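Trying the structure run again after the queue cleared.
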Amino acid sequence: MTQQRRPGFPARLDGGGPQAPAPQARPAGLPQRTAPAPLAPQGLGLDSAAIRARMVQRLAASGIQSQAVLAALGAVERHRFVDSALVNQAYEDTSLPIGLGQTISKPSVVARMVELLMRAESARGGSLGRVLEIGTGCGYQAAVLARLAREVYTVERLRALHEKARDNLRPLRLANVHLLLGDGMVGYAKGAPYAAIISAAGGDSVPQQWCDQLAPGGRLVAPTVGANGQQVLLVIDRTPHGLQQSVLEAVNFVPLKSGIV
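Done. Tokens:
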């Protein structure tokens, strides 16, 4: 696998949009005018913190409890990771195409999976350490993880998406994110062991290499095929007694594939 050069400056994510100017006082004696209704956000105007705050409120109402995860989702501007034709759907709870048959996951799915990783670390009284992400895609989830983890290694097998993610992430100056072009099915042994591993694609089973690269006490969250042939979310914890698996809810992810294209 080829590791791309990381930016040599600190990480910085803008947590909010521009401030509106203060209203001017109405001269005495003039009739009161009704304020016009606010315009709906258009296109790249979706950089308002209020729009992301409403998304976060919906996530909290749906059951996401981690304040750190909610803050990370609220800080990362999802509309900057989708095509301009779809930008007005960026903060809806829906997956969107990003090209090459791949998608950006729903905000609720990203929040759910990342919260599962955080729960394991919180139980030990710490924050996320080194994380391996399988399937960089457009880079959105890596940007969220960058706010929660000490270090993020993210692997993408599709060269065009690897380049897109690099372009999307470059303005954010994430010095703790390592973008890798490679076969995610074999993980990334050079960065192991990992406190957490998360996959954005699902196969018939979880590759053994991922389990081998999981640190003691670490947690892996990935979609896989369940007993009924449908995709389910699988959590694997490396405990002192070995690997412990938990099968959670049904999910729908793109298929896990090998090779670099």
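The two ends are 12 Å apart (CA to CA). Worth checking whether this holds up in the mutant runs.
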